[in-house]
Amino acid sequence: MQQLQSFLPIIIMFAIFYFLLIRPQQKRQKQRNAMLAALKKGDKVVTIGGMHGTIQDLSDDTVTLRIAHNVHVTFDRGAVNNVVSASEPAAESKEESK
Question: What residue intervals traverse the membrane (predicted)?
Fold first, then answer.
C-alpha cells in the first residue's frame, strides 16, 4: 500500500502529460498526414516558409508549385503547411466537357 502511494503522483503526472501534450500532438500529426496525402493538382497551398502557390505536379515526395506566370518551384511534400483552397475536380471536368 505504501509503494502504491509513492508511485501515485508519478502516475497522475504521466496521465496529465498524456492528455495535455502527447494525445493532442498525435491528433495534429494525424491530421497533417491526412492533409498531405489528400493533396492534388490545382490545390492552392502555403508552404512552411510562407510561399503561396498552386500545385502543378505531384510525386510521392515532391510538389511542384506555380508561384507566378511561368515560375515553377519544387518543394518537399512535407514543406506544405496548409491548403488555402482545394481544387474541385467535378467543376473542372464540367468545364472541360463544354
Answer: 6-22
